[in-house]
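TICKET: design request
STATUS: open
ATTACHED STRUCTURE:
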């Protein structure tokens, strides 16, 4: 049975939610899946025992959570040795059918590659969420104005999720199809 590690960096929790969803799919396929925040990971020896790694990073204002950048930088040899993939979670990815949005989302991936030196073989671009109920007033006001310009919901009384869970499943199946299964 293969051991899969899904490590993520998040700010508001949507990337963690995507990582847990990926783990659920892996477990349904009979794989062992561990999900961990990049800032709370176990020692390197435990990490080195995995057969595949999926790395997820939220993008806010074009920036990644520092912990995920550090983790990838510190574990690049592992990521290059085992099947590995990368996914981003951003509001930009909620409009990938718009050429400008797709280009921007792909630029986030290029930036991540440049910052970490790791070139993933598979990449997923997933839409995030607007967590109006969690933002401070200036952040909420800024995001409402951006949402209004881009046709997103502006109802601040609740949060709005844009993640396409079918796209997450397709990405996960594509990544896991390349993971070798160990004999028990």
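STATUS: resolved
RESOLUTION: sequence designed for all positions
ATTACHED SEQUENCE:
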């Amino acid at each position: 049975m293969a051991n899969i590690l899904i490590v993520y960096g998040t700010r508001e929790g949507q990337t963690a939610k995507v990582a847990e969803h990926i783990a659920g799919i892996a477990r349904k396929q009979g794989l062992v899946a561990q999900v961990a925040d990049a800032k709370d990971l176990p020692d390197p020896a435990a990490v080195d025992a995995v057969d595949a790694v999926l790395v997820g990073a939220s993008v806010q204002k074009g920036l990644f959570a520092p912990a995920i950048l550090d983790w990838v930088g510190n574990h690049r040899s592992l990521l290059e040795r085992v099947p590995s993939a990368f996914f981003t979670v951003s509001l930009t990815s909620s409009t990938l059918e718009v050429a400008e949005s797709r280009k921007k989302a792909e630029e986030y991936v290029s930036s991540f590659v440049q910052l970490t030196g790791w070139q993933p073989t598979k990449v997923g671009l997933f839409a995030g969420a607007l967590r109006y109920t969690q933002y401070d007033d200036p952040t909420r006001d800024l995001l409402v104005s951006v949402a209004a310009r881009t046709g997103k919901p502006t109802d601040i009384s609740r949060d709005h999720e844009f993640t396409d869970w079918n796209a997450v499943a397709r990405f996960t199946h594509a990544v896991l199809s390349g993971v070798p299964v160990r004999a028990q």
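CLOSING REMARK: The CA atoms of residues 69 and 116 lie 6 Å apart. The longest strand covers residues 52-60.
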